[in-house]
Amino acid sequence: LRYLASTQNPDGSWRSHGAEGSYPTAMTALAGLALLSSGNTPTQGEYARHVSRALTFVLGSCRRDGLIAQLEEESHCMHGHGLAMLFLAQCYGMEEDPQRRAQVRLALQRAVELTGRSQSAAGGWLYTPDSGGDEGSVTVTQVQALRACRNVGIAVPKRVIDRAMDYLDRSSNPDGGIRYQV
Predict the structure, then answer these.
(1) Which of 135, 120, 119, 127 minimizes the C-alpha distance to 182?
(2) Which end of the chain is more exposed for a tag (fewer CB within 10 A), N or C?
(3) What are the distances in angstroms from CA 106 to CA 10, 92, 121?
(4) Helices marked H in the chain — which ranges?
(5) What does the alpha-carbon distance between residue 153 and residue 157 come to, in Å, rounded to a whole number?
(6) CB-based contacts of 30: which residues, under 8 Å, 6+ apart?
(7) Per-residue model confidence as pLDDT tens digits over 71-127
(8) Nearest to 74 by CA among 134, 129, 36
(9) Pair 95, 40: CB distance under 8 Å
């Protein structure tokens, strides 16, 4: 946690600096989740300031269409979108400022709608919201995020979940492994 706190950027983000991009939305959501899991909130705990700055960054990454991403840095943004939804859902119940809590709720509602619109015909998701394709890891990330949203009272269409669960079921191998795609 000390390492994460010491490597947070002034804008509240973390970046991976990998060959495919820096993925600040995914990296910030993951680092924020680690800080939250140790008992910090956006307003309480040793790393509250870091969680709050991460929350500010993720909220600033929310687009009007529902996508949570920094598109100029993230060519494949759906993993980050799902992780950001998961982070925001966890923060939602801990945010004490009613105005900021309303921002989180609106961001989650829009994100759930975008995730629903981005679901493939087969029931999964791929790397970008408009791809029309699907694969297992992005699909699992979206399902986890949708469940977190539902858990905090955000409406999630049952048909989206049913189609996703069917996709994951069809992706299962007889030995219990999961295929990359259906």
Answers:
(1) 135
(2) N
(3) 25, 11, 27
(4) 2-7, 24-37, 48-60, 78-92, 98-118, 136-151, 158-170
(5) 12
(6) 14, 83, 87
(7) 999 889 999 999 999 999 999 999 999 999 999 999 999 999 999 999 999 999 999
(8) 129
(9) no
DSSP state of 152: T
Only one residue has tokens 């990296």, namely 27
pLDDT tens digit sequence for 14-61: 987 755 568 999 999 999 999 999 999 999 999 999 999 999 999 999
Residue bearing tokens 């899991």: 37
DSSP state of 50: H
What DSSP designation does 176 have? S
pLDDT of 164 > 90? The answer is yes
**Tokens of residue 64, six digits:** 């009007």
